[in-house]
C-alpha cells in the first residue's frame, strides 16, 4: 500500500490518484503547515469519485470526537488516522462510532518501549503506522529514523512505515523492515502542502517491483 500525505490541492490529488496510489492524506491538525479545512477537503474528495478504491485519509492529532465526526462528514473521508497521544480507550470509542471506516493509529517510535506500546493498539485498529519520534512535532518531520528497530516487528495487524521516506531511501527501508504499506509526505514535496509530482512519479517507478 502506498499513501501520499499532506495534500491541499485538487489538481494534485487527481494527478496523484491517477498515478495509482492506494491512499491520499489530508492533515486536519490546525497547527500543521499542511492543515486543510473540512470544506477544502470536500472540494477535493468530490473530484475523486472516479477512484472508488482510494483511501481518503483524514489525519487527526489529539482532537475531540466531535471535530473528527464533523471533518469526516463534511470532507467525505473514509479513513481516520490518529497521529497524537490518543489513548486505547479513545481509539476504542472511535472504533465504535466509525465501524465501517478504516482506522489507523500512528505512533512515533523512540525505542523498543514505543513498539511495545504500539502493540497495545494492534487489536483496536485496522492499521498501525510507525513514524519518526520528534519531541516537538507530531508528524511530517521529514526525519528518517532507526528502522533496524523494526526488523522483527510483527504486531499482529497490518502496519505501515512513515518518517523521512523519499524516492532515494524507500527501497532500503522496505528491504529492512518489510512493511505492509508506506506513507510519505515531505519526501515528495516542493513546500508544505504542495507535492512534487516529478518525485511522486519517480517514487512509483522505484516501487514497481514491490507493488502488485
Ligand atoms: O504532515 C504533517 O504536517 C503532520 C502533522 C501532524 C501529524 C501528522 C503529520 N504528518 C504525518 O507524518 C508522516 C510522514 O511525514 P514525513 O514523510 O516524514 O514528512 C505521515 O504519516 C503524515 O501523515
Q: Which structural traits does this protein have?
A:
alpha/beta; 212 residues; 32% helix; TIM Barrel
Q: In words, what does this structure look like?
A:
Its EC number is 5.3.1.24. Belongs to the TrpF family. The structure is a single chain. The protein is 32% helix and 22% strand. The protein has helices spanning 10-18, 38-45, 65-75, 88-97, 112-121, 170-177, 197-207; strands spanning 2-5, 23-27, 55-60, 79-82, 102-109, 127-132, 159-162, 181-184, 189-191, 194-195. The strands form 2 sheets. It has an 8-stranded parallel beta barrel, surrounded by 4 helices. Strands 9-10 form a two-stranded antiparallel ribbon. Residues 5-6, 25, 27, 29, 32, 34, 59, 61, 83, 106, 129, 131, 138-142, 162-165, 183-187 line the site of the ligand O=C(O)c1ccccc1N[C@@H]1O[C@H](COP(=O)(O)O)[C@@H](O)[C@H]1O. The ligand O=C(O)c1ccccc1N[C@@H]1O[C@H](COP(=O)(O)O)[C@@H](O)[C@H]1O binds next to strand 2, strand 6 and strand 8.
What is the topology?
Layout: E1 2-5, H1 10-18, E2 23-27, H2 38-45, E3 55-60, H3 65-75, E4 79-82, H4 88-97, E5 102-109, H5 112-121, E6 127-132, E7 159-162, H6 170-177, E8 181-184, E9 189-191, E10 194-195, H7 197-207
Parallel strand pairs: 1-2, 1-8, 2-3, 3-4, 4-5, 5-6, 6-7, 7-8
Antiparallel strand pairs: 9-10
Helix pairs in contact: 2-3
The protein binds the ligand O=C(O)c1ccccc1N[C@@H]1O[C@H](COP(=O)(O)O)[C@@H](O)[C@H]1O.
